[in-house]
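re: that chain from earlier
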Amino acid sequence: MVQVREQSHVNAAGDIDLERWLQQLPLDLGIPDASRLLAACHMVQESLHVPGQDAGDWAHETNCFLAGLDIVVILAELQVGLDCLMAGMLYRAVREQRLQVDEVAAQFGGEVADLIDGVLRMAAIGDLKTQTDNPVLGQAHGQKDNIRKMLIALVDDVRVALIKLAERTCAIRAVKNDEQRRHEIGQEVFDVYAPLAHRLGIGHLKWELEDLSFRYIYADAYRKIARLLDGKRLERDHFISRVGEELSHVLRNAGLEFEVTGRSKHIYSIWRKMQRKGIGFSQVYDIRAVRILVPLIKDCYATLGLVHGLWRNLPNEFDDYIANPKENVYRSLHTAVIGPEGKTLEIQIRTRQMDDEAELGVCAHWRYKGSDSDNGLASTYEEKIAWLRQVLDWHEETGDAHNVVEQFSFDVAQDRVYVFTPRGDVVNLAQGATPLDFAYHVHTEVGHRCRGAKVNGSIVPLTYLLKSGEQVEVLTSKEGLPKRDWLQPGLGYLRTSRARAKVQHWFKSQVREDNSDAGRHLLEREFKRLALTSVDYRRIAKKVQFNTVEDMFAAVGAGDLSSVHVLNAAQGLVESRPEPQLRLSRAGAGSYRDQVQVRGVGNLLSRMAGCCKPLPGDAITGFITQGRGVSIHRADCARLVKLQESAPERVVEVEWGAAPMDNYEVDVMIEAYDRQGLLRDITGLFANARLNVLTINTQTNKKHHTAVMHLRVEVPDLGALSKLLERINRLKNVMSAVRISQ
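^ sequence. v structure.
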């Protein structure tokens, strides 16, 4: 494969003639598509005038324009679509920050930009330490295993993998002068990208990547085998020519349509076979090999019979990969025979379609699967993804010097998230893990002292959901201790049971008195925020099956009992009593059937008082109105106090029914420092919680840059309101969020 700058596309001024370069690509582009690809080339060429950042690897060997042209040459041979070609052209310029992804999206569309973004995420793998395969942070599996799993988790479009393969191929070709860089990129390609090319079935890239990386990692062994091959080249070429003549004569007489070619054995595969079988160079018989291409599968087996009739085949050296394809869906017949002059040789027999699949892998699969009018790829995006998931199921021959052989699938990888430590190690966490989960995974003490986190260099909240490919740095304090809020499920600090257990263990180890005080403080804070001033803790403790209030407080403080569980228990504090009870009937809008019980009164219309808007769990009292049934008030409602003074005979005892089901209106006040997007963030929390916002009234103070919001919302119970207020309080610039009464 020849690089762009080595081809004859240079004009008299010494510049690349893009029109001529495009014409020599193995593409059949219409005028509009050719114009778009040339526009991408010109965009990168113009970006050379913009200062860029060192993207490592081969940035010193060439510029992003020539690199882009080289990448397109490789992708064109893989017969990918136009969007993939443009993304390959633009990628290095974006990586060096000469172009921005949004610029690309504006000029060439979102699909091209998405492909580039995917390759940028994969680029993080280049920073990994693949030289060793030691366990990472106490995990049973090694670093290389994590890298490969991470690569699978990052790729959701096979074209991203193809662009990255093309870019790494260009990179390892270009790195020539710096020995350390040669070794580093050779190790990376050997451990990650050559196996990826193998799994994608792209034979010609796999062989080139293996040979180049082997050359840089094991230079002495490479030179020794290269000299042996070169010394026997004329003899070998003469032998292969004779074999071809004899095979052609036999196949022609049988009336078969065929093509016979010599097949070169690659240096790394020779070395690998020598190591695996413990043999010398002279005993590697398939250095001499030919390939026979025929039209149909039945012709393959007919040809095999003719070959075995011409020369004696070697026992145990026949493989039928047509009936039993390799894990990367490679198909062919392989046999070894004793040919002319008594020399052994390998013969491969396959159809032309199988040969294309062996060379182009997944790309050829799409082409033969069925083409569409635009780019000859598979007819649906889902087919591409299904194929990617199939071929990325690493099973063997991973290029690992220690032969790590562990099967895993794309679907399993999707249940995990793979992130970097600041040193470049990969950590494997459950999907949905937070920076705090990461901290506890690193070390228990790191988790206990965690006070913040950076993701990709930017400060994020401890509730941030980590994504594969991100680098996480934990910020700690010397005297930091765990916080009880971390154990509240609704706040989203911890998602893994392992981290939660470590926090719970810490609090259990503390003095009971401290836990009791902390639990009391936490519950009082929750009830105060919910505007509940008369709470019977003894009845709540009994409801949650604790003998004393102190036991309940201690359990909350130790993390064994969540405050949300206590709030939910408050919804059914009053048990049914043997005295007469009648449920209020629902007589129209505003009545609450089966939700409030009244003692000693017949069926009456009921409605929730608009002044205090009680919720299930609030202590409540009824007041019989004139013509509008029973008005249900919170027991501490200021208006109810006045009504009791004026007409005490109309006050009745009421209680919540066994299973309130409706949503209830409640008023919330939020005080915050004003900022752009504040209202959007607040309403987004309501939307995520699937709660309705009935009204919003915002008052701003421009002098002090503050805002006060009054919202009327619908919530099902106290627990839901508590979670909502806590999340609002955690928003940037929010000073307080509380429930209020009119």
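The chain is about 45% helix and 15% strand.
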